[in-house]
Amino acid sequence: PEPDEGGVTTQASARLLAAFDHSDLCNGVFQHNHKDIGKRCKPRQTPIERLSLDELEQYDATVWCLSPPCQPHTRQHSNQHRERDDPRSSSFLHLCDLLIEMDEDMLPNLLLLENVVGFEQNWAVADDCGRDDMGSFTLWRKVLCDRQYETAHFHLDPTDVGIPNNRPRHYTVAFRRGRSLRRRLSGGRSNEIHSFTRIEGLEKLFARETLDKPPIIHDERSLSRLCSTSEPTRIEAFLDPALSPASLEQLRIPKKIRESSGAWCFDIVT
Questions:
Q1: C-alpha–C-alpha distance, residues 211 and 135, integer Å
Q2: CA quadruple 134, 135, 141, 147: dihedral sign
Q3: pLDDT band for position 41 (50/70/90)?
Q4: Which of 77, 71, 84, 65 minimizes the C-alpha distance to 21?
Q5: How far is C-alpha 250 from the chain's CA centre?
Q6: Higher model confidence: residue 5 or residue 176?
């Protein structure tokens, strides 16, 4: 695809190899929205903490998209400093362990992670801090450091990129070249990951992860220097045009709820 006016390539082709989510509701929505993909690659509810290294290496995936449970890291969590003890952290911690163990030739070339703002808290590491004493974010940074990923962390709101959802989130984007990329390119894989690393100005946002310095977390101002931002798209653009008026009415949030004191949690931009 051709770069847009801001000089950034915004489209990429991809083939889904596997999808995992513990929620049957999320998996049902995925299959509804991606019927063709869902037939050949049905999302699995296998607990991620049960996945083996051999199984992940068999997929030979170029890109991993991760959205670990955010509840252990939310500001409302009374024991945020003990988030690793939360059972909901186990799937992400397991994937971190597998990335450390994975053969270099099989490592994904692009890692995309999304979580709640607060995930990045407690990043500091004492000299005698062992793996089991690290918070999730610190362990994540150690994985990226040990496996030599070029990394950028962001705090962004979807409205910054034109999506009508006012919900600040933490994002990590990490890429590595190395043997796995050379092998995949020589095998006929798409070179879009390679092109991604050459976008003008993008390299200024990325650096090799290191644990002896605090993480650099970029915001929308960093992105605005690379590409133009746009006004959020109207919600109606995301609705299925084939829905009948009766079906649309069933999806409408009642006025009583919209005007209630808890309506702030919808995060919707109208």
A1: 13
A2: positive
A3: confident
A4: 65
A5: 31
A6: 176
pLDDT for position 134:
76
Token pair recorded at residue 42: 């049905």
| Region for 31 from its dihedrals, namely left if φ exceeds 0, alpha if ψ lies in -120 to 50, beta otherwise | alpha
Does position 123 have pLDDT exceeding 70, yes or no? no
Single pTM value for the model: 0.79
CB atoms within 10 A of CB 175: 22
Q: Give me the phi and psi of 170, to 5 degrees please.
A: -95, 135
3-state secondary structure the chain: CCCCCCCCCCCCCCCCCCCECCCHHHHHHHHHHCHHHHHHCCCECCCHHHCCHHHHHHHCCCEEEECCCCHHHCCCCCCHHHHHHCHHHHHHHHHHHHHHHCCHHHCCCEEEEEEECCCCCCCCCCCCCCHHHCCHHHHHHHHHHHCCCEEEEEEECHHHHCCCECCCEEEEEEECCHHHHHHHHHCCCCCHHHHHCCCCCHHHHCEECCCCCCCCEECHHHHHCCCCCCCCCCHHHHCCCCCCHHHHHHHCCCHHHHCCCCHHHHCECC
Cα–Cα separations (whole angstroms), residue 237 to 160, 240, 241: 17, 8, 9
